[in-house]
Amino acid sequence: MRHGGQGGRRAFTLVELLVVIAIVAVLIGLLLPAVQSAREAARRSSCSNKLRQLSLGLATHESAQRRFPAGYVSEANRTPVDAATRDRPPGTGWGLLIAPYLEEATLVSDYRPDAGLGVGEATNRAIVSASPAIFRCPSDTGPREAFTVLGVNGSPHPSGAVLGRSSYVGNAGHDEPWGDPLDSWEGRANGPLYRNSWLPISRVTDGTSHTVFLGEHLSRLSQKAWAGTVPGAASHPTPAFAASSGSTADAAATLLLVHSGPAAGEPGVIHPPNDRAAHVCQMYSDHPTGSHVAFGDGGVRFVRDTIDRTTWAALSSFNGGEVVPNNGW
């Protein structure tokens, strides 16, 4: 018989186990922020690269067509016309217009702007409801599936249009001209992307390196599309965003475009990215402390939430003649 003493193994006591668990918990607590920070840095870099490609797509369009794309297209001889906004088909948006310069030519090659409602036409649905990865920021935690277009009253749009989502929006400038029944936004919109804008570079007198063309918006806040819009449609806030911000549904243009303020109806009110008082028609990002914006020269910059509001308004217009500081924003 073997008598005890030499071969026995001493087990951990409960106190020792608790100490080990506590040490592991502390290490996880120390490492987790670093891991999260590294992941966000990667997402932020990916977002910046995507916006840079989109901005270069705008510049390539200008090189090929001698003008930047329109924010979206509304043709004067088309019907139906939305009495509230004077929007008409085809509704082709800036994202669809630059898609051939983004290695998406195969996807959009069969798009027919001349077909009925254009973006809202059933024959174009497979194209406009697609979700090209380049239009989605990896930090955007909102839904990724295509959405059914709604009217202002929240009912499905009569066209049955379904649009692929986008995390990126065009800058229409200070005002929100989509709030009035205007046949033309000329003289009212001072951002580079608005309905039928088609700006030649010579009109961007503030300089393409000092004019914001694109920015971010979150799918978890409201519906945004890359391909275009439909007359009589609306961009609706999610219930949570509506409750926290008081935002309501806005015109069809805001499926693609945002404005910075000051607008005619809000004198002196300017909304930089992530402004707590902003609605579905402003820029938002899930990146901590700020948001990416793309300029007309292909450059991308991270704008902090604390940017001076006057500077932000100056960057949002293409012909205001404002003096924009080179740093500090």
Summarize, please.
Helices cover 24% and strands 12% of the residues.
Topology (SSEs and partners):
Blueprint: H1 14-65, E1 72-74, E2 90-93, H2 94-98, H3 105-108, H4 125-128, E3 147-148, E4 150-151, E5 162-163, E6 168-171, E7 212-216, E8 233-235, H5 239-245, E9 250-251, E10 257-258, E11 290-295, E12 300-304, H6 309-316
Parallel strand pairs: 6-10
Antiparallel strand pairs: 1-2, 3-5, 4-8, 6-7, 7-11, 8-9, 11-12
Features:
5-stranded mixed beta sheet; 329 residues; 6 helices; 3-stranded antiparallel beta sheet; single chain; 12% strand; globular; 12 strands; alpha+beta
Notes on the protein architecture:
There is one protein chain. With 329 residues, the chain is α+β, with helices and mostly antiparallel strands. It has six helices and twelve strands. It has helices at residues 14-65, 94-98, 105-108, 125-128, 239-245, 309-316; strands spanning 72-74, 90-93, 147-148, 150-151, 162-163, 168-171, 212-216, 233-235, 250-251, 257-258, 290-295, 300-304. The strands form four sheets. It has a five-stranded mixed β-sheet. It has a three-stranded antiparallel β-sheet with strand order 4-8-9, with no helix packed on it. It has a two-stranded antiparallel ribbon with strand order 1-2. A hairpin with a 4-residue loop joins β11 (290-295) and β12 (300-304). The N and C termini lie far apart (83 Å). The model has no long low-confidence stretch (mean pLDDT 92).
